[in-house]
């Protein structure tokens, strides 16, 4: 299985997600669940085929991690829709997933089967997969924040704020678990749990920023707008942690976390 087949799986998946999102707007819940689920199954099948073809988890490069993010976004949207029945959440998750799918289509990356010794640790795959799930959940929380701040005409309801908070709580739990797995991976690969590598530094900044949001919401529950703005800023920090560090001069040739096709 190579990147040349990706467009087939991607088109089928995006069509299923889009039709499922349309069904959600029309209150056809069974169809929304079924089509979104089919799209997720097709997309995950491609990830599995890539895993088998590469003889390793497809997690090494940015292109490969975008595969997981494209998968987890509709999954997070489906979870939110099934729990709180927000009709628009599947549309937003589909739109964001399609953006990442298009990036992979227009900027394909060819990968080899080989992995550097550090990436052969059994902690590597679960560490990255857990992080991708957390990014998707926190991405859904950011979408909620944008909707409540800039799109919705009236003030946010308590239920809507609870949805946003719950997404952050679960996303933070995954981030924390991912950091712990990363520390175990680092200990096995490099002999230390934490070394203030640029990636690790930005991971700590991101974790602390979401922790600040949680504390603000807990002690200032009647002032949601600053918290929602804070949540958008937190997601920007998360993007810096995920891919922004690749462009930092301080990370070039130093960080072991920068993605490369070499």
SSE blueprint and pairings:
Blueprint (H helix, E strand, L loop, with lengths): L5 H20 L3 H26 L7 H23 L4 H18 L17 H28 L6 H33 L7 H22 L4 H19 L20
Main location: membrane
GO biological process, one term: cytochrome complex assembly
Protein name: Heme exporter protein C
Structural description of this entry:
By secondary structure, the protein is mostly helical. It folds into 2 domains: 1-67 and 83-110; 118-252. It has 8 helices and no strands. The protein has helices spanning 6-25, 29-54, 62-84, 89-106, 124-151, 158-190, 198-219, 224-242. The longest helix has 33 residues, at 158-190. It starts with 5 loop residues before the first helix and ends in a 20-residue tail after the last helix. The model has no long low-confidence stretch (mean pLDDT 86). Residues 86-248 form the Cytochrome c assembly protein domain. Required for the export of heme to the periplasm for the biogenesis of c-type cytochromes. It comes from Segatella maculosa OT 289. It is found in: Membrane.
Distance between the termini: 20 Å
Mean pLDDT level: 86
Whole-number total of structural domains: 2
Helix content: over 70%
Sheet bearing the most strands, described? none
Strand content: under 5%
Run of helices and strands: HHHHHHHH
Rg (C-alpha, Å): 19 Å
Q: What form results from the Cα inertia axes?
A: globular
| Unreliable runs | none
Number of strands: 0
Which structural class do you get from the secondary structure elements? mainly alpha
- Number of helical stretches of at least 4 residues: 8
């Amino acid at each position: 299985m190579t990147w040349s087949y990706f467009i087939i799986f991607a088109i089928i998946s995006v069509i299923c997600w889009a039709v499922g999102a349309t069904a959600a707007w029309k209150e056809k819940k069974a169809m929304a669940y079924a089509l979104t689920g089919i799209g997720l199954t097709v997309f995950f099948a491609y990830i599995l085929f890539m895993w088998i073809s590469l003889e390793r988890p497809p997690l090494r490069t940015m292109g490969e991690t975008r595969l997981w993010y494209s998968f987890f976004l509709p999954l997070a949207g489906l979870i939110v829709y099934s729990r709180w029945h927000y009709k628009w959440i599947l549309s937003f998750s589909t739109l964001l997933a399609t953006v990442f799918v298009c990036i992979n289509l227009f900027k394909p990356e060819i990968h080899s089967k080989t992995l550097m010794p550090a990436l052969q640790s059994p902690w590597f795959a679960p560490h990255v997969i857990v992080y991708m799930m957390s990014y998707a959940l926190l991405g859904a929380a950011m979408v909620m924040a944008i909707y409540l701040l800039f799109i919705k005409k009236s003030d946010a309801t308590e239920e809507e704020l609870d949805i946003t908070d719950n997404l952050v709580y679960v996303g933070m739990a995954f981030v924390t678990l991912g950091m712990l797995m990363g520390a175990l991976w680092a200990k096995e690969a490099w002999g230390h749990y934490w070394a203030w590598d640029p990636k690790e530094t930005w991971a700590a900044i991101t974790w602390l920023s979401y922790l600040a949001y949680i504390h603000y919401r807990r002690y200032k529950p009647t002032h949601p707008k600053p918290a929602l703005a804070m949540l958008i800023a937190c997601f920007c920090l998360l993007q810096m942690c995920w891919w922004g560090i690749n462009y930092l001069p301080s990370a070039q040739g130093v960080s072991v976390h920068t993605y490369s096709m070499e």
